[in-house]
Specification:
Elements: H1 22-25, H2 30-33, H3 35-41, E1 45-49, H4 53-65, E2 69-74, H5 91-95, H6 100-111, E3 116-121, H7 127-132, E4 138-141, H8 146-159, E5 162-165, E6 171-173, E7 176-179
Parallel strand pairs: 1-2, 1-4, 2-3, 4-5
Antiparallel strand pairs: 6-7
Helix pairs in contact: 4-6
């Protein structure tokens, strides 16, 4: 596990779109977690692998924690079947087959134009994509396949990165739900 210094640069005095201070944005959760914890969060690099239903929710929530940097990756495009679960997606996005990384980047940029982030359109099984995540302090795996989950686990074990694996599953057989 990487050790994060509490002496990291505080981002609490920075302003986001519209001039709102981060202090005001964090007004509700700082009393719960404390300013010290928020300073630590502001130094972290958080990665999200997979930007579908759960991954898009993670992007939405993690960006609001105001981490130091966010790294996101997916190699998929939006489809009409994604519209009921991908946060921020709309009909035009699905019609254009917008990259899920582009949607997540748009979501982050609309909330905080100053947020440092890296969007990687690629398959996490590719070593070039995995290299982008080696700088992370924590990685959230929200992929829809076992092989990329194993790759995330191996990357995190080899590099001392915390891994949080999240997901849901529905098994269909002959057009009917067999298990959920």
């Amino acid at each position: 596990m990487k050790i994060i210094s509490p002496m990291g640069r505080s981002r609490l005095s920075v302003s986001v779109r519209g001039g709102a201070s981060l202090e005001k944005i964090n007004d509700r959760h700082i009393p719960v977690i404390g300013e010290y914890a928020q300073r630590i969060i502001s130094t972290l690099t958080m990665g999200i692998i997979g930007l579908g239903g759960i991954g898009s929710i993670l992007v939405e929530m993690i960006m609001r924690l105001l981490p130091g940097k966010i790294v996101i990756a997916d190699d998929d495009v939006l489809e009409f079947t994604n519209l009921n679960r991908v946060v921020g997606a709309n009909y035009k996005d699905a019609k254009r087959a917008l990259l899920k990384t582009d949607l997540a980047a748009r979501t982050i940029s609309r909330f905080n134009t100053l947020q440092d982030f890296s969007a990687v359109n690629g398959n996490f099984l590719d070593e070039s994509v995995q290299r982008k995540f080696k700088e992370c302090d924590v990685i959230f795996s929200a992929t829809d396949n076992v092989s990329s989950r194993f790759a995330a686990c191996n990357l995190c074990l080899a590099n001392g990165i915390a891994l949080i694996d999240v997901g849901t599953g529905v098994i269909m057989k002959d057009g009917k739900v067999e298990a959920a």
